[in-house]
Design brief:
Number of strands: 25
Distance between the termini: 90 Å
Shape: elongated
Amino acid sequence: MNFLTQLPLPSAEVPDTLRNLLEVETTVSPSKKVQVTTNFEKDQYGDSHEALQMIMACVPESKITNLGQLNESSNGVVSFSTPICDIKGDISGIKPSISGYDYIVASWGDSQRYSYSLAEKVWMTLGLSPRVIGNAIQKVTYDDLSKPVIDVASGDFASQYYFHSSRDINWEMRNDYLRKYLWMNGCWGVRVFYYETYIKDSPEIRELFGKETYYQCNKPNSWYDLVLREHQNKIMLQIHATVPVVSPERCDVIDKYSLVWAGDNYPMSEDRASSYMRDEYVYVDDRFLEKYERNSMFECIPFKMHSSFGSSPSYGGQWSFRDCKRVGRNMLKVSIYELYRGVPSQEILHVHKHAISAVKAKGFSEDQEHIVCKSFRLLETLIDLSENLATLAKVANGTSIQPTDFIPFGRQEYDNEGIRNFSIIKKLSQVAPLDMYEQDFLARCKTLNEILGRFKPVPLRNVLLALGAKKKDINEIQGIRLFQALCNVLEDHNGKSESHELLHKAASDINIKNRNIKIAPLFINNDLRNAEAHESIGKSLEHLEKLGFDISSVSEGYGYALDYILDSVTNALIDLNTSIQGAIHR
């Protein structure tokens, strides 16, 4: 149906808003937002004046042919004003409707106040959950939390009219969900609207007027009533219309069993996917995890099992990926059997977009460390360090400090839950592609610096006091300079091969504030963090060069730079652990 060609107007003179209202929606794009209710008025007294009030009715297929015009286009709401009732039960038979038909958005108004919400029948049929956005915005959004699909339908709550409208009203609904509802009810989505605006004067328009200053086209049983009139030397267009634009046909959906995976020649049949004995796997770029890492609705916690690592995103206890093993720096190896039986079709399609053929995967080393491995190694090193520092204070002069007094990462919690409760470690372990931008690299350096900043200064100073440092020398030392002071003391003590029995005076005769090259990676990372904080983008290469990093490799991204800084910081802390172990066991 081409409604545009049925208007008596020249096509070039049809306003874009009216053109869009008359366009029949297609089934091609499931996620497209379809307008289902609109009410606005722009430039009320100016040359660009435009006003629209539109609602959507659900009309059975059998009624479409002779539908004509529905009266609700005049008021722009499903229910106008309130019923008069003087006798008990007098309105028991009244049911809000659009000329007897169901509606997508419930709307009420009385020329001064207007209220809107998704029709009860719609959200209950589709199983949608409302989410309110308040303050000045005053909108409600409906989500399908079973999958999840966010923002299935959304729109404005209410408006007031006093000489002009307090806000524009706009309600939209995803194409696939709208069509699913219409298909279930065997109905068309019909736009019922009134629209007015000024249009350009032209000979074609004047021909319609003839000798008059007024033109109306209102044929019997027509879908529109169009009026053109001269107003203040301008041509005003006004139209009431009832237009079926959304058919009860489901959106085009890709069948998960029709997918041809990278490197395969045939679709993944149901028999293949459900066969446990086939033991088929697919390689996937780890960027498929970004969808789950960056959305708090999902749970995506990397885990370590023996010597291997995995990431199995899940959603609200409703579904979960299984058997997703990390291989190489930026790949996962995913079981086809577990993928097809464990997650919804939309998630399988998401994985398919990031699939890598086995031939291409062989071009990458499966033994190369990935960001999760490096993050876990850093955490284990920090836990070791907290335990070693507690032991060092105890051996030096009997000072009792708990490992978790230094840093809030406990070994027992790590052994029991992995990094589940360590949100900052989870943040560090998120996907880090080789072609990551400099700003993303600096943000990750900031996270690394925040992790090191979790070390509390007071317990660290107490360790230095236990080693014989003077209180006046350490009171002003902060942050990673405390590690440097500690490294200076241990380096001097171990260099003299002195016994642990002399640890209580190891810091008494040295300058603990001297620079120490062994801690340089921590200072360089701090400089990188400062570069991010002060938006000194472009200067990170200067800091990386100080650590001996080959900056020519960043031409294709900062992934290897992140690897280098993480390894350097971790290795510096491992060296500090080694020094502590040497001191307390000698």
